[in-house]
Design goal:
Helix content is about 20%, strand content about 35%. With about 190 residues, it is α+β, with helices and mostly antiparallel strands. The radius of gyration is 24 Å and the shape is elongated. The relative contact order is 0.13.
Length: about 190
């Protein structure tokens, strides 16, 4: 049984919750998110908290029970505080700039790469750092992964786009030939 699913989700005063049979609408100061409720799980409002209950005891309901609670918590945090991921550029001549709302990356290719943000995502660029922010945790993480995927950090010099705080395990380069070589080699 899910321990996360048993926990109630606290709803702050500035957040409005609208419940239907198949979705929960969470509205706050930063925007509005809709969380779909899977079959076999029910969500109810008890005082100032949201409570998820399993409606049946099959495998899919048990799997969805804890997931729906985590999604509701993420939605509430998103509409009140928002989510953000920070990326760093490392490499000679690597830079990022905003062109309108689009992010333009110059990362060693013969052409600049442009990343257009979907609705609800904003980019900010300061001193070789890229900030991806929005209210949907999944979408912020997905767009940050897309930006990182343009030029992931390589293991020899560590050049590329990486998350702030990410540790790149470096590999040793090629070793020099031995003097004299193998017997019989010319």
């Amino acid at each position: 049984m899910s321990r996360i699913g048993k926990l109630p989700v606290a709803v702050p005063k500035d957040v409005t919750i609208t419940l239907t049979d198949s979705a929960v609408t969470v509205k706050g100061t930063k925007g509005e998110l809709v969380v779909a409720i899977p079959q076999g799980v029910g969500v109810s409002m008890e005082g100032e908290t949201l409570v998820a209950k399993k409606l049946r005891n099959d495998r899919s309901a048990r799997a969805s029970h804890g997931t729906i609670v985590a999604l509701l918590k993420n939605a509430i945090i998103g509409v009140t505080k928002g989510w953000q991921k920070q990326l760093e550029l490392s490499g000679v001549g690597y830079r990022a700039a905003l062109t309108g709302t689009n992010l333009t990356l110059t990362v060693g290719f013969s052409h600049p790469v442009t990343v257009a943000p979907p609705n609800g995502i904003t980019f900010a660029v300061t001193d070789g750092k890229i900030m991806v922010s929005g209210i949907d945790k999944y979408l912020v993480g997905q767009i940050a992964a897309t930006v990182r995927g343009v030029k992931p950090p390589e293991p020899y010099k560590g050049k590329g786009i990486k998350y702030t705080g990410e540790h790149i395990r470096k590999k040793a380069g090629k070793s020099a030939k031995a003097v004299g070589g193998a017997p019989g080699a010319k």
